[in-house]
Amino acid sequence: MSHGNVAAIRKTDTAEVRVSRNYWKGRNVIDIRIWYLPSGGAEFVPSRKGLTIDAGKLPELLDRLAGLL
C-alpha cells in the first residue's frame, strides 16, 4: 500500500491518528489509523487499530459522522 498522508491528529505524546489516501489492490482507499511511538523508538509506526474504506464511500461516512454532532 502506498501512503499519501493527508493529516495527523495528535492523540497523546506517543500516539496520533493519521488519515491518508492510498492505492491498494487496484483501488483508492482512505485509511484512518492509530500510529504510535514504540518504546525507545524514534519514529511513529502504524498499529492494527484503524479503518480502511473505499474512497468512494467517504462521502457517506462523512455524512453519517456529521449526523452524530
N/C terminus separation: 32 Å
- How many structural domains are formed by the residues? 1
CATH class: Mainly Beta
- Bin the strand percentage: over 45%
Reading side by side through the largest sheet, how are the strands ordered? 1-2-3-4
Would you write up a description of this structure?
The chain has about 70 residues and is mainly beta. The chain has one domain: Transcriptional Coactivator Pc4, Chain A (Transcriptional Co-activator pc4, Chain A), CATH 2.30.31.10. Strands 1-2-3-4 form a 4-stranded antiparallel beta sheet, with no helix packed on it. It is built from 1 helix and 4 strands, in the order E-E-E-E-H.
What does the secondary structure layout of this molecule look like, with pairings?
Blueprint: E1 5-12, E2 15-24, E3 27-36, E4 45-54, H1 58-66
Antiparallel strand pairs: 1-2, 2-3, 3-4
What attributes characterize this protein structure?
about 70 residues; 1 helix; 4-stranded antiparallel sheet; Transcriptional Co-activator pc4, Chain A; mainly beta
Please give a quick description of this structure.
The chain has 69 residues and is mainly beta. It has a single domain (5-66), classed as Roll (Transcriptional Co-activator pc4, Chain A), CATH 2.30.31.10.
